[in-house]
Amino acid sequence: MSEVKDVVMVGAGPSALAAAVYTTREDIDTTLYEKATIGGLAAITDLVDNYPGFAEGIGGMQLASQLQAQAERFGAHIDFGDISGIKRDGDEIELIVDGEPVRARAVLIATGSDYKKLGIPGEVEFYGRGVHYCATCDGAFYREKRLVVVGGGNSAVQEAIFLTRFTTHIDLLVRSTLKASEVLQHELQKFVDEGKITVHYGVTPSEIVTEDKKVVRVTATKDGSEVSYDTDGVFVFIGLMPNTQFLAGSGVELDKVGLIKTDLKLATTVPGIFASGDVRSGATMQIASAVGEGATAALSIREYLEDLDRA
Question: Is the pTM of the predicted complex or chain greater than 0.90?
């Protein structure tokens, strides 16, 4: 069997990179495995405007690169690899990385969550440049602009209401009926009555149309006919898909939507396995809080390893 690593971190987004800064500064051998983009969703965000310390905002790729460089400066090893399984074996954790076993004394899962997509033309191509999944992150870019919001659940209604503080008008596109709570629907009605939000039922978006590299409208079908909605941007809130499929059979407990349950020290139900960032149940889905959770997880991992050494 190959060497046993001190810590393996699954994912290399802001939370894992921040955690790696803390563990490696204390000479804890740390390896991160990322299957897609180092920096996660942050890296493919055009501009991060609400991360503390950057008064003028910072490009998502630039922020990710700086986090990576900092972690590597202290000795973190970042490799590309796809984790397909994980289990506790004695006092160690075994992961299957690209089909091969890797063993570690502790593991941090920071794989994040991915936004559920509409799967229509224009959505992926203009992510972060007219198509968004976080009102708190990107809503301020649309002051005095018109927006389309897609979704009918609690998140869609909450975010649409939040966006009214910036926009001139919102078209809320609902595939069938509103599934938001009665309290939220009652609050939404106030904005409808004020003319700030128009709710369109039975609408299925078919394309996000752009002109001169800018989003200009959303086309959709309603009652078998094509309709369109002029807009300066599109916010999609149809749910999150936690990146936790590889945890099947691991013993790590998930909540009803597939996010990882942890205690206050960010430990999961399996000793030696911790979780932080957007993959964790109760996370705020913000880069700043993901980084903070990474630091917390790192300190908890250090304590866990010290307890192992004393045992």
Answer: no
